[in-house]
C-alpha cells in the first residue's frame, strides 16, 4: 500500500500543497492557481490540498503524516489557535476535514527550503544557501547536505534580511511589496552608484545603518501574531529608508515615470549580487563540495542567479522550480518522508507537477464560451502553431500538467515571434505591464548556446538565470533582448515537454531561429491560469490574443480566424 505524506505551506503568502507517495513527488499545487487570488495572501491551502488529493484519487484518511514548512515553537505564534490540531483541521481541509487528523510535523522554515533544493538536485553532497524575507527568526542560512542529512550551520537574523532589503528598495522605487521583479528589470537601464546599506564582507555580507549592523526589535502584541513578514518588515523598512534618500531622485517614487529610479535600482541590484557572491565565496572555503543548492524567495532574482552560474566557485548551481515559500510544502514533506524511512529522492529536471488539462475539460470550456475549435494531432498542432507565430499571431498555449513556480515554462504560456520587437509591446499591453519590462525566450535545449554568449546553467530549465545574448543575434531576436543585451532563457528539454519542443523545432524550420517568446498566461493582477476554464476566460478577455491552443484543440473566436492544418 502506498504511504502518503502531505506537505503544506500554510498561508501567510504563497500557500501550497505537495503530495508524496512512498517518498516520491506526485503532485504540487499552489493555492493561488486554484483560488485565483495572486500570492494567496493570508489564504490557507484548502483548495490546493483538495486538488492534490483528488488528482491522486485519495482522501485525507490515506495520509500517513502532514508536514508543515514552519515551526512556531519559541515564537509569538506558538499559542495561536489556528495552529492547534483542531485549528489545522479547518485550515487544511475546510468542510472536508477528516474525523481523525494525521500526525502533524512542524518543520523549521529554512530546513524545509533547504530540503526543497538539496533532496531534488541529484547530488550526494552540496553546499546549501537559503535566502528569503524571514523564516521564524532568520533570513539567511548556510550549511551543507551530505547523504541525505542537511546541516544548517550559520544563520543571519531577520534584521539582516536580503529579501527585506530588496523589497524595501522595490517599494521605494514605487513597485510595492510584490514588485521586486520590476526592480530587477529596471536595474538594467541604470548604472550602480554604490551607497546601499548592504555590503559584502569576508564572511558573507552585512546590512548596516550609520556604521553599525542593523538590528530591529522583535515583534510583540497584535503585530507578532501576523506572521514574520508583517511582524518584522515595517521596522526593517523604516531603518533602511534613510539610506535610500542619498540616491537620485532622493525621494520615494509617487506616480512619476520609473526610469528616474534606474540608477537606484541598479545600485540595489549590485548590492544584492555582491552580498550573495560573498556568501558563496565563504561557503566554498568552508565546504569542499562541487555543487551549490539555493532556495528561498531571493533565488527568484535571475540576474543574481546568472552571476552565480558564471562567477561562483562551485562547479554546479542548482535552483529548484519553486524556490519561493510555495516550495516549502515539498521540502517539509521530503524531510518527514526521510525520517520515516521512505526517502526516494528524485532529481527535479522539470516543473510539470500541477494538475492537467484534459481533452474533455478543454472541449467543454471552449464550447461554454461559444468558441470555434479544431482538433489536431501532435505534429499538426506543432506546425499550425509555429506557422501562426511566424505569421505574427499571438498564441495562448495551455496543455498538459501545469508548471509549478512563478515562471511559465511551456504549459501555461503566451507565445510570440521573437524576431519582431513590436511583439514585446503587444504582450505587455495584453498583460497590463509597463512597456520597459522584458519578456523571455523558450529555447531548444540543444541550441541554447547558439543564443547565449554566457552560461546560464541548470537554472535555465526553470527560467531562473539571466545571461548575455550573442551580439550577432540581438538584431535577429529583439523581442527577447533586454536593454543591457541580456535575456532570461528557458532551456526546453525534448524529454520533459516533447509537444512544446516540437512546436519550437517547427518554428525553427519556418523562421530560422530556435526559440519563441514565452510569457505567462495570465492578465494583470491574476495568477497564471490553472484550468481549461481559466485559459478560455483569459483568452476571451485578452482581446489581442489571436489563438488559444488548449490540450489538442486550436481555439479561435470565429471560423475565419481558425487556421487550416
TrEMBL record:
> In which family does this protein belong, per the annotation?
Belongs to the NodU/CmcH family.
Database matches in InterPro entries: ATPase_NBD, Carbam_trans_C, Carbam_trans_C_sf, Carbtransf_dom, NodU/CmcH_Carbamoyltrnsfr
Q: Which residues form the Carbamoyltransferase C-terminal domain?
A: 386-556
Give the protein's recorded name.
Answer: Carbamoyltransferase C-terminal domain-containing protein
Query: What positions does the domain Carbamoyltransferase occupy?
Result: 100-334
Return the Gene3D superfamilies for the record. 3.30.420.40, Carbamoyltransferase, C-terminal domain (3.90.870.20)
